[in-house]
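Quick one, probably user error.
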């Protein structure tokens, strides 16, 4: 029996530590990639900004440090997912390379033999919950209520605030993120509402193709 393909995730937030593996496993099932797997916990960086900052091996800072840790486990692929916060908007005003491509280049330079994709959620992972609100309501994750204006979701700063309002209770990332992720849809409508979610789905396609190709060439 052939060994299953193993994809590791690297994230910054406590909520994403459990939520992103949930998302990956759901997407594998959605695509019927039954020979792909990921651990229950993603590799979590040591705080917000720890992946974006310059590499400092002694302080475990920079995307390079976490890619090295993941590469030591000899995975078939690595997905790095982080929040853009305001950085993508700031870069749009300058001639600097986009955050995602810059981090992807840095990551691939450290582990040239492993397929790596970097996805930046614009502005936050929680923006995807707002984009998928109808699915979350249908699944009973969010109470029914007034329609939420769905255009320009990725321009919202602090998406947790409208989520708290929709829930009518405090939002708890460590428990709500994995739970809400169970209801995120893999639809064209969702991709239209969120460009960064669309980039995620394209990155997963590319990553799984590259993982298969890498195994075939060894």
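Nope, works fine. Designed sequence:
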């Amino acid at each position: 029996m052939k060994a299953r393909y193993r994809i590791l995730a690297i994230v910054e937030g406590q909520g994403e530590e459990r939520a992103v593996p949930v998302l990956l496993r759901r997407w594998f099932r959605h695509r019927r990639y039954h020979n792909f797997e990921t651990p229950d916990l993603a590799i979590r960086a040591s705080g917000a900004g720890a992946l974006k900052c310059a590499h400092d091996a002694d302080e475990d800072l920079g995307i390079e440090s976490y890619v090295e840790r993941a590469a030591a486990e000899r995975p078939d692929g690595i997905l790095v997912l982080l929040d853009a916060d305001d950085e993508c908007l700031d870069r749009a005003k300058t001639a600097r390379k986009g955050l995602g491509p810059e981090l992807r280049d840095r990551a691939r330079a450290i582990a040239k033999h492993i397929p790596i994709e970097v996805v930046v959620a614009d502005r936050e992972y929680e923006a995807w919950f707002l984009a998928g609100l109808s699915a979350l309501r249908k699944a009973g994750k969010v109470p029914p209520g007034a329609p939420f204006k769905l255009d320009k979701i990725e321009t919202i700063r602090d998406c947790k605030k409208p989520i708290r309002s929709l829930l009518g209770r405090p939002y708890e990332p460590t428990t709500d993120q994995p739970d809400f992720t169970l209801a995120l849809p893999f639809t064209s409508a969702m991709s239209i509402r969120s460009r960064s979610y669309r980039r995620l789905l394209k990155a997963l396609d590319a990553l799984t193709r590259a993982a298969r190709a890498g195994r075939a060439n060894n």
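The beta strands are 5-11, 36-37, 43-44, 77-83, 116-121.
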